[in-house]
Every structure is written in structure tokens, then in C-alpha cells.
Amino acid sequence: MERSFYKDGDIEIAAFFPIYIHLVNRLMNIFQRDLTFIRFQSKNYQYVLALVFAIEEINKNPHLLPNMTLGFDLYNVMHSDMMVMENPFIWLVGMEKHVPNYTCGKQSKSVAIISGTSIAVQMGTLLELYKIPQLTLGSFEPLLSDSGQFPSLYQMAPKDTSLAVGMVSLMLHFSWTWVGLAISDLPKGIQFMSNLKVEMQKNGICVDFVEFIPVTDESRNSLQNRFHIQILKSSANVVILFCDTDSLIGVSFPTWQRVMTWKVWVTTSQWDFASDEHHILLHSFHGTLIFSHHHSEISGFKNFLQTVNPSKYPEDFFLSTFWSLHFHCSVTGASCKTLQNCPLNASLESLPFHHFDMSMSDGSYNIYNAVYAVAHSVHEMLLQELEMQPVSSGSKVEFSPWQLHPFLKNLQLTNPAGDLVNLNHMRNLEAEYDILNFLNFPYGVGRKVKVGQFSPYVPQSQQLSLSENLIEWATGITETPRSVCSESCSPGFRKAPLEGKPTCCFDCTPCSENEISNQTNMDQCVKCPDLQYANTERNQCFHKRVTFLSFEDALGMILVCTALCFSVLTVVVLGVFVKHRDTPIVKANNRYLSYILLIALIFCFLCSLLFIGRPNTATCVLQQTTFGVVFTVAISTVLAKTITVLLAFRVTGPGRRMRQCLISGLPNSIIPICCLIQLALCGFWLGTSPPFIDTDAHSEHGHIILVCNKGSVTALYCVLGFLGSLALASFTVAFLARNLPDTFNEAKFLTFSMLVFCSVWLTFLPVYHSTKGKVMVAVEVFSILCSSVALLGCIFVPKCYIILLRPEKNALKGFRDRIISKETDVLRNSS
């Protein structure tokens, strides 16, 4: 097949567009070219005119490629795996006998190629041998963005990554949950179907069927016997149609007139309805919603289309064929380009919409931008070469196509319409879409009306905007159509999936006890919150009564009174120790540690009040942390006292190292160290999973108990574990010092206090986990009070007894006599 349209120029652009379709013999080989003409693709002829318009506009521009003309070399693309490479070989070889990697004719002046997406995939490997830039007019194909496999290929279309999201947003807007898919059998179509199904699954939309639309004659022949049968049988009233510029859908559905006219079609502008010769097709697609790439209008393009005719471009074989088909002209001459008996007023504008669309399509817009991209790249390259090496007057700058790549890769230009053009797929933006409504009027007059738009660059709630009053639905539909597999379930019922059916097909089942559904089509009934219970209709929850361990409760009052009484008693004990601070019994056991321990015990008693009353965020956070810190102070003080006692009775001999430890106050450093460790644990607890207000609706029937959830159980047990470790250490050290001279030695009392303390908390753990509600809180408060009373009673009550009732024992002389007597007994026994 020879070139169909050629315009000479100093530099040229080769173009391969699918303009007409041939029937290819399945038995013929690639070198046989006896093809039968089938059909002219009217819509795609606009690609030719967009190419011509852009090149003429550039040639008239004195500021772009001055003193240089731009031409083109145009070929048709075969819809056949066997024949798709025939015309590219003819173009490369320069003669009709296509011999790979051999050039016989005149050296080609083409610096770039413009083609469709599907042919770009097949031509890419061949053209990569020559490093010729190849620009695609179809929608963005992720496969072609692989710079390692296709380093010389550039995609003009923006990314369609948000197309699936946009279509699903449209489905959700109209509550269409039962749809069919008709998808191009290209890898891009398969990828789009995968993305679309993921978005549908996220939003509860089901697919009833999937039909694949062929791109080549071979695939069409294998599919045509079973094609569109599911569309006819499906109960889905909405069909998503995704095709490419190279699709054969127009000839793949030979019986489209049988398609139900009440179907709602959602498609893209990569394939629309201007390519069909049969009037009946428009009735099937009346009311279709089309996602079209948003772009500005190209000034002058419509006027250019109005003036196009065969006499203006007599060398255009496509135009002559187009004119003869649509205006019934007679073709004469060997070249089949001479026309006779054509109407005088024949023009593209006078043709019905289904024969030719006067508005610029997405593919034509991409071709327009591709031509400008090549022109600007050549212009920039020539300017750079002239700066580096000026040429003499009258000579021309020569270059190879591969030299354009650095300029194309970094190209960013604003086309005459004011839109940004970017060929780097890494910086390529996502597409914004105009939503068009296709309308068919009598006598084949159709038009597209913009009814909305979708933008991925705004918040999700504002991405889709529609003017529903402008939408005209399919023939016979007077209101917004429905497309569902099963009717809605009313409140009080839930959807029950049907075995072997998609999730959108279901039965309606009443909600279980204490569960409700207050909306239609709920997947699951909602269990009433702990604060509420379900009514008999299972569509509403009523509030329960809220309660908690309050100060007014008898149990709460007892615990509060106990805590206050013992805290006051501890203050009294502290006062006694302060008053008798210079007595031997107070001084002998490190009075400052005694003060710290008594103050800590006051806070231990008072911290139990945080567990009583209505919980709030502050009290929930303070309960466990305050408890952990003040008890850490108390237990670490006990540990310091026991170590002090042990050291005090081991430094009686001269030259002991322990004397220095005791004098330096090393045991006292245990308190801040332990407190810092506990504060770190509490800080980690509050930083990761702090306590919070929770409810307990199961402990008391008809009541909701407000409690404080511990948040991180691990952190809680870390705090308690650290306290237990301190208590165990204190008990061990006190136990080791229990037999030392005991006039003022409190080791026995410390041992007993730690024994009681550990017993209380070991008993607490199983009891705490076996109770619920207010009783659980009371158990914890009771354990806090008991352990605090144990420390107060076992350590300080004996001392208060001596101070207040037996002052004669509170004397240093008695302590010394006791020490001498003990040492004498030891010496006597040793001798």
C-alpha cells in the first residue's frame, strides 16, 4: 500500500493512523497485499485534518522554524497482527517491496512518527533500531512508559490513573451497583478493568459480565460469534464501555440494532459514535455519558474544517474517499482521487454528527500537541547548534532524528490554546475529565452536552460535579435509571448474600436481638451500643441508665471515709515523728527516709480517691500513673531503709568499705533512681496507649457502668511488675537483716510489712480479673488501702508505741548496753 497523503517539507513527520479497515485473508502471508476494502472510519479522519491544520499553522508562524517548512508522510494502519507492520516497512524501505533494514528510495526526511497506541507497541521495537522519536495519540498506556523497553517513545495523553475513580464516583452518585463491562482486549484495557474492579469492590459495586472488544481482525473473528450476547441477556442497565482509538467495535457488533435502547452506556472519548455508518447505532447509545479529557478549544480549527474539500487538498486520497462515500460523488481517474458530480455546497459541517464530528476529539488534540512538540524540539535544537557552530548563508542545518530526544524529554511548552504540554511521563499530570451527554436527534443530528466534570486535584467530596437537569437518558427512560441486582432492604433488615452470586445480589433478613439497621441496604445489622438497647422493630436503640462507683454509693462512701481516715492518721504519725525527731528511735532509722515514706503513704491513701466518682480523661490518666509513682516512692523508700539498716550493722568494724557507702548516703539514691524508672514506664504508657474512658454494659442488667480502660495492658503489668520487683527486693533485704540487734532495728517490721504488702497484691490479681464493673474498681481501691495500711501499721505503729507509751525505751543508753551484751555473747560463744 503506497502512502495515502504526502506533503513535502524541509523536515517531515511520518504518521500512521487507522483510517480505513481491510479484510485480511487469514491464510495470506505478510508479503501478499491483495486486500479488500471494508469500511472508512469517519471519526479517525479528523486525525488527518488535525495533523494538516497543525503543520499549516506552524509553517505560517514566523517565530517557529523560520526559513524551514514542515511536511508529513501519512499512512493507514492495518487492523491485523499480520499486516500492521506492512506500511511501516514501506515507509522505512522507500519502495513497495519492503525489505527489512534496507533503504532503496530517497532518504527520508522524517524526524518523528505519530501513531496510535496499539501500533506503537508493535512498532516500538522496530523503530528503536533507528532511534526515531515516536509520539502516540491514544490514551496513556502504562506499558509504554517503560523507558528501558521504549526509550524513544513519548505519550501525548495525560495519565488516566483517576479514570476508574471517576467512573466509580459516577456509579455511586446514581447508586448504580450492578453494571456490565465491555473492555478493549489490549493490555491497557485489561489494566483498566483491573483498576476498575478494585475501585468497585471498595465501594460495593458488582460486575455482572465482562465482554472483550477486539482490536485486530484476528481477535474479532474469534470473538464475533459470541459477542454481546451477555449484554443482551444481562439485567444490568448500565454498561461501562472502554475502547481505544484503534478498536474495531464499530464492526464487531454487526447486530447493534438489537441492543436494548434502555441501557445506559458510560464510556470514554477514545471511542465514540461518530464512526458508525448505521443510523440505528445512535439510538442504542442515546443518553450515553462520556468521560473526555478536559482541554481548551483550539482557535481556528473549526473554521479550518469548514473550508476543507478535495479541491483544496487534491493529493489527499483519504479526503477523496471520504467525499465520495458521504456525498455520493463519482470517482474517476487511475489515482481514484478525481471526483465528479459532487454537491456544490458539500462540506464537513453539513454532514450528520454520526458521519463527522466538528468538535476536536482527544486524539486530534494529542496529534496537534505532538506536532507542536516536534516543531519546538527541532527549533530548540537548531538554535543550540547555531550558537555552537554558525552556518553560512543559504546552507541548511542537517541532523538525525535521534538528536531530538534530549529536547523532547525535557520539553515543557504552552500550546496556542494555553494548555501545558509535557512529554516526560514522570512529570505527566493526571487527566481532568469533562462528562459529556451524547444526544441523538431525528435525521442523524447528534451532539454532546457537557453535564459535569471530574477532577482528581480537589477534595474527594468535590471531585465529581454533575448537572442532572441537563442529562437526557436513554430512549424510553424518563427518570434517573436504576441498576441493581436486588431491591433495597428496609430498616430493620440486613442483606444476606446469596451463595454463588455477587455481593450485590442478596436476600433481606431481619436483624438479630439487640441489633438494628436504621438505613436501607445495610450489609450488617449494628449491635446497639453498650449505652443502648434495640426496640422491637429493630430500627432504633434506646439509652440505658449510666452508673459508676460514686461518692454517694454506700461502698464508695466507706472507701472514701477509710482513705481519708488513714490519710489523717498518717499525717498524725508524721507529726509525731517530726515532734520527736531528735529521739534515738527516730534518728536511728533515718528520720528523713521516714518522713518521705509517711508523705508517700499520705498520697497512697489519697490516690484511691481518683478511682471513685464519675470517670473523666484526667482521672483515668492519673489513676494508674499516680498509683504507680507514689507507691514506687513508698516501696523504694522501704528498700532504702532496709539497706540502711543492713549497712548500719555491718560498718561497726574499722576500715570497712560499707562505712563510706553509708556516710555518702548511697542508699538514699535508690529513691530517685526507682522513681525515674517508674516515670519512664508511665511516660511510655501514656505515649503509646494511655488509659481512657470506657463503658461496661454487661455487669449490671439495664445499666451502663463507666470505667477507666487501662489502655495498654502490657504497660500496666510493667508498672505493677516494677513495683513487685521493688517489693520483693525490699522483702529480701529486710529478711536478711531480721536477726541484727533489734532495739531500734526495724528490719523485722520492714520484713513483715513487705510480706503483707506482697500478699495483698498477689491476692489482688486473681480477684481483680474475676470481678467486673464497680466491684472491680472497689477491689483495686481496697487493695491500695490495705497495702498502704500494711506499710503504715507494720513500720510506724511499733515506733509510735515506744515514742508515746514507752519513752524509757527510747533512750541511747539502753541501745548501747544491748549492743555490748550482744558482742559479749558472741565472744563467749566463740571462745
Automatic annotation (TrEMBL):
One of its GO terms (cellular component) is plasma membrane. One of its GO terms (molecular function) is G protein-coupled receptor activity. The chain crosses the membrane at residues 554-580, 592-613, 625-649, 661-686, 714-737, 749-769, 781-804. Residues 555-819 form the G-protein coupled receptors family 3 profile domain. It is a multi-pass membrane protein. Its main location: membrane. Keywords: Cell membrane, G-protein coupled receptor, Glycoprotein, Membrane, Receptor, Signal, Transducer, Transmembrane, Transmembrane helix. It is found in: Cell membrane. Pfam families: 7tm_3, ANF_receptor, NCD3G. InterPro entries: ANF_lig-bd_rcpt (IPR001828), GPCR_3 (IPR000337), GPCR_3_9-Cys_dom (IPR011500), GPCR_3_9-Cys_sf (IPR038550), GPCR_3_C (IPR017978), GPCR_3_Ca_sens_rcpt-rel (IPR000068), GPCR_3_vmron_rcpt_2 (IPR004073), Peripla_BP_I (IPR028082). It comes from the Eukaryota. Belongs to the G-protein coupled receptor 3 family. This is G-protein coupled receptors family 3 profile domain-containing protein. It comes from Oryctolagus cuniculus.
